[in-house]
Here is the input.
Amino acid sequence: AALALAAVAWGLALLVTRQAERLAAAHRALAEERLRQSEDAVESVRALAAELAHKLSNPLAYVVANQQLLELHALKAGANAELVEASAETDEGLARLTQVVRSLQHVAALPTSSQSRLSDVVAAVLPMVTPRLEQRQLLLTTQLEPTEPRTVRAEAVWRLLSQLLSAAVDVCKRAPGRPSLSVRTATVEGAPVLEVQIHGEKLEGWRAGLEAVAQTLGFSMVLSQHDDRLVATARAAA
Here is the structure.
């Protein structure tokens, strides 16, 4: 009887093990397919961004040059206040279009290699996510130490950094004075790390849910608060 029970137990254990292996294989296949689709989507966005930037940049350059020429002639002719105001609004619109073209160019230049350096990806992504900081007149400093090549998805870093800086802007809006931000990359214990810090006084905590967002993007995150700064440290998954 004991042998029979042992045989049944062994058979059940073998069945459970095989089912677990099949389930793990299915999860790996699903994860690989999602990664492939994500990479294909990023490549499509890059190609579209490159095409749009190319088609917009030359006409925009002509318009900017003509606008500058018109302003010069208007200045010499003694333009009235209405014309001066219209010219200023045109300059503002052209500046926004120029920023759009630059953003498209940065998207087109995103690293595509699956073995990218986190520091390189962050350097490419930063110009796309910092205009909001400039609008808020927030000082941003960077310290991008070269990190070892690892499997880092540009799209994931883009989304993570956007979320972190968006949360940082929300914190800075509620803080007195003029808080400043810093972005740093480094290699800690063999893993590439992205760190965002807010420096200021009476800083409230980070937005809830950032850890979960980081995890879905392939990073583990630790949020901490000190007397004069908030720190978000995201470590790339092994």
